[in-house]
Amino acid sequence: MDISIDKDVCIGAGQCALAAPGVFTQDDDGFSEVLPGREDGGGDAMVREAARACPVGAITVSET
């Protein structure tokens, strides 16, 4: 699994961090980012739900 966040689209709503806190966090400016070492989702079943929860569709999850 490959997770990417379009920083130009992200508005910092934080829905991803709420849905999958083991994979997503927010940076110092409040924008979402993937936790270091979790770029592959770390087996978290909620990664796809976190992507769906993003109100602006800034998160892309694809199979590698």
TrEMBL record:
Name the needed cofactors. Answer: [3Fe-4S] cluster
Tell me which UniProt keywords the record has, alphabetically: 3Fe-4S, Electron transport, Iron, Iron-sulfur, Metal-binding, Transport
Q: Where is the 4Fe-4S ferredoxin-type domain?
A: 1-29
Pfam families recorded for this chain?
A: Fer4_15 (PF13459)
Q: Which domain of life is it from?
A: Bacteria
Gene3D superfamilies noted in UniProt: 3.30.70.20
Please provide, alphabetically and separated by semicolons, the GO molecular function terms listed in this UniProt record.
Answer: 3 iron, 4 sulfur cluster binding; electron transfer activity; iron ion binding
Q: Which InterPro entries match?
A: 3Fe4S_ferredoxin, 4Fe4S_Fe-S-bd, Fe-S_cluster_ET
Q: Say what the protein does.
A: Ferredoxins are iron-sulfur proteins that transfer electrons in a wide variety of metabolic reactions.
Tell me what this protein is called. Answer: Ferredoxin
**Top-level taxonomy:** Bacteria, Bacillati, Actinomycetota, Actinomycetes, Kitasatosporales
